[in-house]
Amino acid sequence: MSGADLAWLRMERPTNPMTVVAVLILGSRLQRATVRALLQERLLCFERFSQLPVHDALGTHWHTAADFDLDAHLQCLRLPPRAGQEQLEAAAGRLAGKQLDPRRPLWQIHLVERYRHGSAIVARFHHCYADGIALMRVLLSLADNAPVAPGVDAAPARDGESSRQSTPFAFLEPLTGLFGSAVATLRDVGGDAAGLVGASLNLLTHPDRAAAIAQRVAAASNELATITLLPPDPPTPFKRRLSGRKQVAWAPALPLFEIKTVARALGCTINDVLLATAAGALGAHLRQRGIPTDGLTLRALVPVNLRPAAQQPRLGNEFGLVFAGLPVGEHNPVARLYAVHFDMERLKHSSQALVALWLLTALGMVPGVVEDRAIELFTSKASVVVSNVPGPREPLYLAGARIEEQFFWVPQAGAIGVGISLLTYDGRVHFGVVADRNLIPAPHEVTRHFAHEFEKLLLQVISGSLAAGPMLSRRISP
User: Fold this and answer.
1) Considering the domain 177-391+413-476, what is its CATH architecture?
2) Segment 372-382, tens digit of pLDDT
3) Choosing a second label site near 370 at 20 to 30 A (CA), which of 10, 139, 239, 358?
């Protein structure tokens, strides 16, 4: 098991299970037998999902479960008659706070055969198996670009040339380019201990590269010092003691073309607009609870994919983290957006994501007590985890059932108990929140602000009242 994977395995806590949670809402009914056949064919071709972590004198490694039973990993979840979103959210929240059985491979699929006019799925995978990007690829490998009759095998061979593989995964490619300097450093220096040794030997025969590598290593060292010296995030209700009881809520989807319109008009990215809108929703929620927010900026841990764009899908953890500023106390939606934009531009040219990956890899190689203290220190510097995944542009179908909505939460580690999901799919953006009950007793109080905060930004663009935009951007630019 790699150092990064082991680090995530050892982060498991009763108050914070290290589980990636996905919710899929389907447009037609699926039966358990159909889903079982799909998992047997398309999920279990990944050997890892029949394996579990085993500790012995040599360390921790993957071991194939001798008594693997697919039926133990596929469970039917029954909701009350005529159950709606509130009941599904409650069920997903209970599962998000429940640890997976360590005696079996650490994943489960929960099928709600009857949900509204269709079905729903809540999937749970331990983070040590793979990061969110890899698991998204795995889940989408179960889907097709067109509806097929249940029981019909429409999945072509996994030779990397099928349209079913290439189309759903094409959306992941821009994530690597978002932090291109970090990815370039990763390729030059190496992502693990073996890569570092190889890079060192290579420098002996190519001394002309030594200066460039030394500069990047120095930059990484400075970045590590910067992270270490960051003060803890300000005390708010998001920093209370965790109870281990999770709650989930999501908002109606927003049209992606409207978000693109705002981003284009203001010279920002879609990611900037979504983060700024999420910051606005969190700020509105705090003020609703009587918490003053003037001048308040919180930090979010944002996962960053560090895989090369052309790399074939594979499991494992190959991502970094950055501390992104969320100006929750900024009432002006345009000023909030520019503040997020300038901070993200700074992070894109830093080594912070790569340093976080190296740190996680190193933590997997030290005693557990050292990792525990490091994670507590690291997570004290942020209040929320935000995962922003650009999903497939076209609708996908699971065993013939159209995937109408999907949400995807990565776990919150250490002292963090709030997670935000931003996922674009089929021309819409889905926004969801998972939170410890001690921090956000009613997560709908956050999700209901999301559309309203975006509408305020959209109205600024539509009304044409942005003539002062360039002056504003210069005024708040670092």
Assistant:
1) 2-Layer Sandwich (3.30)
2) 888 888 889 99
3) 239
